[in-house]
Amino acid sequence: MAQVFCIANQKGGVGKTTTAINLAASLSSLNQRVLLIDLDPQGNATMGSGVDKHQLKSSVYQVLIGLEDIKNSKFHSKSGGYDVLPANRNLAGAEIELVDFDHRESLLRNALSKEHENYDFVLIDCPPALSLLTLNGLCAANGVIVPMQCEYFALEGLSDLVNSIKQVHANLNSDLKIIGLLRVMFDPRTALQQQVSEQLINHFGDKVFKTIIPRNVRLAEAPSYGLPGVVYDKASRGAKAYIDFAAEMIERTKKTHND
Ligand code: ATP
Ligand code: MG
């Protein structure tokens, strides 16, 4: 049975997609079977996995509206070693089209139920909004990974996300929990980042992952080659941190499984 995790933060540009791609590639390098679902019309996780979003016959959009199943819409990322359910701009229309659907928040969960036996991990890269798409991600998941930059306003936005997760937990998906907060693009020389990091630990305790992802230009360069950072330059500091993070995820999810 696959464990399903959303990578979510309604703030834009905080490192969701970079985390989704590099965690997917790191987990697959640790012999885990991984499906990465791109739930963002920007299609960045698709392109960053080496799949051309402009050439898709079917995508997560067709899956959500019930025209195709995941089996016929997914690709294998040769560079990353994992499968990808891709997205492109078509998905932007789904927000409005899906409003008239019954159980519109559970469409992804239902589609995914046929794939559970094929994977150890399913990772869902969410768009930067608390939208119907993100809601579909949260309803389909066992847990949420929240990447965040340690900046002043980061903490403010976090309470909206935490409240949404609580609401989904109470009303739609009692499995859902926050797996952890991941500090990304971290620069230890910045006093403010150190302070915010300490505040995070004071407030969220064990929910803050031990691994810290540094700011590292190799991670930012990799998507333009259609490669995960951990493949593009596996000796880089950023790549090593994501491999450590994958090991921490395996360890942490083993623990929550046994609780
Ligand atoms: P959006 O909200 O638009 O979906 P996002 O949260 O998915 O954005 P990313 O696209 O992963 O964020 O990252 C935003 C930018 O920061 C990208 O240009 C990415 O390459 C860069 N970036 C992400 N993580 C790092 C890092 N650790 N070091 C350096 N650059 C990074
Ligand atoms: Mg993104």
For the record, give the distance between the C-alpha atoms at the N and C termini, rounded to a whole number. Answer: 17 Å
Determine the CATH topology: Rossmann fold
The average pLDDT score comes to: 95
- Secondary-structure element sequence? EHEHHEEHHEHEHEHEHHH
The class by helix and strand makeup works out as alpha/beta
The second-level CATH architecture is: 3-Layer(aba) Sandwich
What about the largest sheet?
A: 8 strands, mixed
How many discrete structural domains? 1
Count up the helices: 11
Unreliable runs: none
Q: Give the neighbour order of strands across the main sheet.
A: 3-4-2-5-1-6-7-8
Ions and ligands: adenosine-5'-triphosphate, magnesium ion
Globular, elongated, flat, extended or rod-shaped: what is the shape? globular
Backbone CA Rg: 17 Å
In percent, how helical is the residue content?
Answer: 40-55%
Q: Tally the beta strands.
A: 8
CATH level 1 name: Alpha Beta
**CATH H-level superfamily title:** P-loop containing nucleotide triphosphate hydrolases
Strand content: 15-25%
